[in-house]
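Q: Predict the assembly, please.
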Amino acid sequence: MSNSLHDLDEADLFLVTGSNTTEAHPIIGMQIWQAVRHKNKKLIVIDPRKIELTKYAAMHLRQRPGTDVAVYNGLARVIIEEGLADLDFIRDRTEGFEEAKEIIMTYTPEVVEKISGIPKEQLIEAARMYGKAERASIYWAMGSTQHINGVHGVHSIVNLAMLTGNIGKPGTGVNPLRGQNNVQGACDMGCLPNQFPGYKPVNVPENVERVEKVWGVKVPTKPGLTLTDMVNSMGTEGGIKGLYIMGENPMMSDPDLNHAKEAFESLEFLVVQDIFLTETAELAHVVLPATSFAEKEGTFTNTERRIQRVRKAVNPPGDAWEDTKIICSLSKEMGYPMEYPSASKVMDELASVTPIYECVSYEYLDKGVAVHWPCNSCSIDRTSCGTLIMGTPVLHEGKFTRGAGKFLAFEFQPPTEWPDDEYPLILTTGRNLWHWHGGSQTRKVSSLNERSPEPYMELNAADAKKMGIKNSEEVKVTSKRGGITLKAVISDRPTPGVVFIPWHYKEAAANILTINALDPQAKIPEYKVCAVRVEKTGGGQKEPNPYSHYPG
Amino acid sequence: MGKFNIKINGREMEAEEGNTILDVAKANGIYIPTLCHHPQLSVQGACRICMVEVKGLPKPVTSCTTPIAKDMDIQTDTPVVIKQRETVLELLLSDHPLECPTCDAGGQCKLQDLTHDYKIKGNRFEGEKRKVPVEEVNPFIRRDYQRCIQCSRCIRVCDEVRGIGAIQYAKRGFYQKVSTCADKVLDCIFCGSCVQQCPVGALTEKPSKFKYRPWETKQVETTCGYCGVGCSLTLHTKNNEIVKVTSRDDTLNKGHLCVKGRYGYEFVKSDKRLTTPLIRKDGKLTPASWKEALSYTAKRFKEIKEKHGPDSLGGFSSAKCTNEENYLFQKFVRVNFETNNLDHCARL
Ligand code: SF4
Ligand code: SF4
Ligand code: SF4
Ligand code: FES
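A: Predicted assembly structure:
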């Protein structure tokens, strides 16, 4: 996020797109709702699905899945045309506006209506509302990025913010909501094929020098493969042969699981370090028992770039080891001893090679200071509500981190797979409130599992009627890649023609259906759009879930 | 807003317009008991335990509802207000089950504490007690309204802070109780904010029942391991087991969590946890010692590197693991595998 939760409610308008905030980021969803209810702030939701927040939204634009770029371009066009653009900001702080404008201006409300299905009046009204807001902030999540043109979507969102000068001030900004607890941190730490810690490209001599000085060895300078490319290379000539996985379960989270399984099975050697025998660990040659979040010391970095402490509360079971101890011991066996007396010492070393973490240390974290990176000064400020702050809660104040902000506009690109006669419905996957990711943790919590015991698919009533499917009836969902059986929940959340399946349930893993099509730049799979067919199995109606507040 | 001087218990202090007597007292370290008040919630003035006397006013006033004003001269513990508080407590206790030994709130109950502080013995108001069945047809929250003191904090937090409005008062007078719409089973987001607000044992966590007494637990401050919001959690542990999760008001999430953060901890002690290294032997994963597992792993990685080159190796790190673990992991891969084939599931 360019901004932080400290200044969230200083916005006058929230634009939420591709984020089912109250279920996937519940506390941020709650804070947005509070601002709308108690402070009369405006909310616009752009999402194909009805979500909890749409109940409180001034406007809900329901685009056809996968047409986001056209919608964002269309909003930008109206803003420019109606003179709502912040020309001073564009002149002083950005570049590339004229080139971007050429593309943007071709997205007339009529064109956008044709592509996205959003009535042109709605688009115009939403653009006016956003353009006129004094301070507007945009929140988005995987709904906007898990497309083959996900990167284009992000640039188009950023265009909107720059166009209106909504960057670098409290209550504004471009705020992607990071999925997992420490995605932000894993990226910051350089668990990326092309960057050392702190987003430093691996092929720049200065960066190589920085890490080599601290590590005392030569490091590889050729960019490596991304996760999805590694999986695709497995089993091929010159592909990945040996893999070390720490705390991930790609056999639930990867697209097109049948294909992924073949890939992992082709490995000569697979090591999985985890707390459970996950679907992936079952395929491993060696499994190393690790510790859960409650059994170790460390830090997580949240979606607002805030570094927070994780503390040990209980001992690990049996002979499970802390991940840091496993890595260090294995490194010693490999011939490169690593030793750290405490997690705090690891932080000290990583701060020395990660410029954005320069002044981060346990000393401040343990004092309860809210530390946001980039943190290159140890001076501590106090917010109006008394919170002690170090680092940078609001990014791009005064100037962008990369100098001028760059406008980049793109043409809309249809999803890889589009419904046809054989597979007439669009499948979107996502999360619900009750479970987490592949479910390896939450499905083992009896209370959560009692609340949400089984896989399901949300289906619009109109489609259900057409196919003669009753609520809670068992159905089979098939894509070109495979099929799963689960119960149908009739709901007004998806539009007609679209079904939604949460991917938490291994009995009917949604990713058996999804397509292995990637955004060429970010390598994000297109989880939000693929074509499926739904049929009754004849298995009859199952017991409906007694709870109604959220499906699941 | 205007600033002016006031007096509490004879002490001069500065106060700012727009605050209540309670706010000013608190800010100056002066204790006034409260039950229905919470700074995040609208003001209710329901319990009347926070009475104080203000010079010049005919009767004591509730400090949580009364705005501070210039030159107020306030007394927080006069015989008159103490008598009134005792009466409030006696009335509450007259309709309270007093099953403290088996109540989860025993030891951290405001009513219990105040009864102790005001040395309440016996009761002038013995009479009929309400009979309300316990409601617990849901996996998370036990609602025992016989213990309810009708402070309405649960109702207010659910409506004003969480935006759910799952609970409301039903009926009137003696029969008034907190209820769901049409008295159906509790059907909400199960965030547990109401449980955390309840000053007594009317709302308690089902998964924690009979697991601990408050004074037996240790508390550890940590960060939630599910989504990227990063809520602060307080893990309460007893005998090496997490028995309950709460959150403090002075955190980024202001004490509020979602159902996963508050109730999603049971997996930690699951009997499905891996407790020993495993090595595949004859096609089956077989328990092994750390020594064997580590040396075998290192040997195989080295062999593959030798045979197919560094770029035939790769590592997936984890968006669930800590920064320190991720840092060491990428260092491990870059140094030992000599490749940048490194990634994690940020994109998934
Ligand atoms: S758990 Fe949360 S949503 Fe449910 S009644 Fe309590 S406060 Fe309301
Ligand atoms: S249940 Fe608890 S919080 Fe709710 S009104 Fe009763 S005593 Fe107050
Ligand atoms: S408590 Fe819920 S909202 Fe908060 S970090 Fe955990 S999963 Fe996210
Ligand atoms: S705390 Fe003031 S009336 Fe309840």
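Chain A has a mean pLDDT of 94. Residues B 34-37, 45-50, 62, 64 surround FE2/S2 (inorganic) cluster (ligand 4) (CB under 6 Å).
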